[in-house]
């Protein structure tokens, strides 16, 4: 199954997201406040107390996940557009994901292409958020361990960074739903990660190509426009 995922309508939604994300964060906070009030005012058994404390922690974790999946879009500071070396980002990504991968019994294989012109243009910290969201999903798709492959590649249509996993895979229907706010198949999912990633990469004029086989794994290829010779010369 192969799909190309840049859809205007989905991306427009992002603009209206802030209010809805604020709402999603307010819910767990309200719940936590309720439990803390209970703990403070009502006599409770030790078992009940422990239960409420756990619920508080779970709710706070949920709020944290929403914020971190959504972080860079909500960030107000102006974008810093620069030339980004894809091999440097490959390095960054493998370092950031290492602990999470180890924890989940997953091996990371990194392959940096030696081709020239492996660059993209955009805001580096936003691009990193997009990569981390995609990488985290790849790891979460491998519940029983597996291999995460990270590589750069010079494709016929441009420089690419590719994240592939040997995880659960997706059906064509599931691939279509990617990037839709709050679409998640995970009990603790936010359904914000791919939405955020897609909108960041779209802004960089990149494309996301997804190949997936149910039960075998998924490949996310982020392909950027080939830069012209004069552009390369301008930025060295
Ligand atoms: P979340 O990770 O919180 O569920 P995301 O927006 O990051 O939200 O991802 C949405 C859904 O897309 C996931 O719940 C999962 O079903 C699917 N998905 C994303 N990446 C992969 C992948 N590499 N393999 C399998 N499914 C994936
Ligand atoms: Mg995710």
Explain what this protein looks like in three dimensions.
By secondary structure, this protein is of the alpha+beta class. The protein contains 8 helices and 8 strands, in the order E-H-H-H-E-H-E-E-H-E-E-H-H-E-E-H. Strands 1-7-8-6-5-3 form a 6-stranded mixed beta sheet. Helix 2 packs antiparallel against helix 3, helix 4 packs parallel to helix 5 and helix 5 packs antiparallel against helix 7. It is elongated and about 75 Å long. The two termini are 39 Å apart. The model has no long low-confidence stretch (mean pLDDT 89). The structure holds adenosine-5'-diphosphate (ADP) and magnesium ion. Adenosine-5'-diphosphate binds next to helix 5 and helix 7.
SSE layout and pairings?
Blueprint lengths: L1 E3 L3 H6 L3 H25 L4 H29 L6 E5 H18 L2 E6 L7 E5 H17 L5 E10 L2 E8 L6 H6 L15 H11 L3 E7 L3 E7 L5 H7 L1
Parallel strand pairs: 3-5
Antiparallel strand pairs: 1-7, 2-4, 5-6, 6-8, 7-8
Helix pairs in contact: 2-3, 3-5, 4-5, 5-7
The structure holds adenosine-5'-diphosphate (ADP) and magnesium ion.
């Amino acid at each position: 199954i192969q799909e190309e995922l840049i859809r205007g309508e989905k991306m427009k939604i992002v603009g209206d997201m802030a209010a809805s994300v604020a709402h999603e964060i307010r819910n767990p906070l309200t719940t936590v406040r309720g439990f803390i009030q209970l703990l403070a005012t009502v006599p409770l058994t030790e078992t009940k107390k422990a239960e409420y404390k756990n619920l508080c922690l779970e709710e706070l974790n949920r709020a944290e996940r929403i914020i971190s999946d959504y972080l860079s879009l909500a960030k107000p500071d102006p974008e810093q557009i620069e030339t980004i070396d894809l091999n440097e980002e490959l390095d960054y990504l493998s370092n950031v994901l290492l602990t999470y991968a180890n924890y989940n019994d997953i091996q990371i294989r990194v392959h940096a292409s030696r081709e020239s012109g492996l660059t993209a243009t955009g805001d580096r910290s936003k691009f990193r958020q997009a990569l981390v969201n995609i990488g985290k999903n790849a790891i979460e798709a491998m519940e029983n361990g597996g291999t995460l492959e990270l590589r750069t590649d010079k494709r016929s249509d441009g420089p690419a960074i590719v994240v592939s996993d040997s995880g659960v895979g997706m059906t064509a229907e599931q691939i279509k739903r990617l990037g839709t706010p709050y679409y998640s198949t995970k009990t603790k999912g936010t359904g914000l990660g791919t939405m955020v990633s897609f909108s960041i990469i779209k802004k960089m004029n990149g494309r996301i190509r997804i190949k997936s086989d149910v039960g075998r794994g998924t490949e996310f290829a982020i392909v950027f426009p080939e830069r012209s010779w004069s552009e390369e010369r301008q930025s060295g």
